[in-house]
Amino acid sequence: MNLHDGLKDPKLCRNVLRQIEAEVDEQFRFMEVCGTHTVAIFQSGLRSILPDKIIHLSGPGCPVCVTHEREVAAYLELAEKEDAIIATFGDLMRVPGPDKKNLKDAQAEGARIKVVYSAFDALKVAMENPQDKVVFLGIGFETTAPTIAATLKVAKEQGINNFYVLSFHKLVPPALKALVQDKEIKVEGFLLPGHVSTIIGLEPYKFLAQEYNIPAVISGFEPLDILQAILMMLRQKNNHEAKVTNNYKRAVADIGNPKARQVMDEVFEVVDTFWRGIGVIPQSGLGLNRDYERFDALKAFNLTLPDVAPIAGCRCGDVLKGKVRPDECPLFKKACSPASPVGPCMVSTEGSCAAYFKYMVE
Amino acid sequence: MGKKVLLDYGSGGKASQRLISELFLKYLGNERLNRLDDAAFLTNLDGPLAMSTDSYTVDPLFFPGGNIGSLAVHGTVNDVAMLGARPMFLSCAFIIEEGLEMEVLEEIVASMGEAAKKSGVEIVTGDTKVVPKGAVDKIFINTTGIGQIVANPAPSGHRAKPGDVIIVSGSMGDHGLAILSHRQGIAFDSNVESDSAPLNHLVLKLVQEIPDIHVLRDPTRGGLATTLNEIAQQSQVECLIFEDKIPIREEVKGGCSFLGLDPLYLANEGKLICILPENQAEKALEIMRSDPLAQECAIIGQVSDERPGKVVLETGLGGHRLLDMLEGEQLPRIC
Fold first, then answer.
1. Which chain B residues touch A120 with a CB distance below 8 Å?
2. pTM, whole model, 2 decimals?
3. ipTM attached to this prediction
């Protein structure tokens, strides 16, 4: 039996579940801030066996879901440029733009789009196609930003002049701050993202406990990880205390990964950025800094971030903030389904609407 | 530099004839094919018959455990067999990109010959087209198979009944992961081999000894999840399956976790799903275990009338979730 089997072990999990059942008194609303947690909670069937009083909310932790309509419009505009090859992670292929068109449609119309597994693969595409301009769509949080920064360092060192990044990276702690400052959102505990935390560590979340009295636990993605984290938050709530705890020490060092942060700092600068459903959050994004300006696709292709009218009826924004459940959106399973997604929460494999649609047994 | 396939080879003239006699007949030849008439003259076919066709496009052409040629034979042989039939004859049609190395074509055709021999089917008619460079990706192969139905009544996706059990003949996802891990551009290496194999001999044993098999399907593209959804919808039943009973190799689990994919949606090319009354299950497992292709067979679930048309997965923790059909292809995710 390997470690991961142990963390899925039904017996161990049921033990923790029984403790949760014994200790949950009133309702407890927790939010996970990572799309991989969202999927893990549904895939493992945890959601269907947690006590009813444990209210589970999915937060703004899916990189596709929080990509703003303006940003989607910008990369779709880029797809129309004849001299550009777009390199992207697969998740973005189906996200509809303002006129419902997505990258799959653009590809069928002739746009050159390559689905890649890493920014380095995108750089390879650039090196293999020196006559074209290759643009990597830089979407994601602190998890992906360091590898993209490292790729840009290589591109700079090797003098590759046909590689660009459209940097729409977002930072998790400022989004959490925006959430807890919203009086309508009543989250009593945060399941903190395992992957992001490998980079940033414990420190940037401490304000949750110190300033807002909300317990928060960095968690892995196995069922036992998640159950333990819920129990830890619940106990703190019952004891009227709040701490930020690292319960994923097998992958996350309390100090995170300073080397990764250093490479991010070398390439990016912190900027204000748009989050879908939330709006502008100050100092919550990463743009390319002056030293890497020449790789900036926004500038190289003169892209604007056009105003885009919100989609009528779509409540992805409220879903991301935990204000409504996906099935409370009037479009859910009607106008909006994975076959014809209206909003990004239904498109992304890590989106909460898609998870509800795909996994909920009625 | 080795010889390459030229447009001339598809012209119908002497070059085509040379290709047919020196390559195709060399590896695929038999009494019927060698006649080179416009159509195959078939004998020994008493109805009812099963017929199936499929086109094969795969990147890369060669993968651990097989290649597009053997796959094109196994795939159609298995499709015909799933009706409880004995596959007998195959047609094959090639669409080849100008410039493909002759060596590559030869290796593909040779392995088709071997696969046909192993399956006990004859390739009796065929066609070759060569198209300009860029018009197709290297080579596409279409095969059509015809066979005699042995089972009475024939198994069908429409015949699953509440109370039946669901058996798979072995581990899921091997073919899909073998292909993905060797696709250009994916920096990921695994030891997983494709399970590509002919299942007709196993099927024959099953249907001869157990006349009451309701459904036989090979979970190819879309994997176990998609195929079970098709069956659930065709038969208007619920398929409840148990996560910890589904055989999946550790390497496949690990590879899928790395790539952000679900093994239950990955293609299999040498496995079958068998749905039959519970009192016949042990006998089916016994027959499977006596076949080298089905050593890891397992009962993975049961059929009920609770949620018609749905597939529900009971997780290792005892939770339940839908196992829906995929919308389009699985795509690599961001983090």
1. 187
2. 0.85
3. 0.76
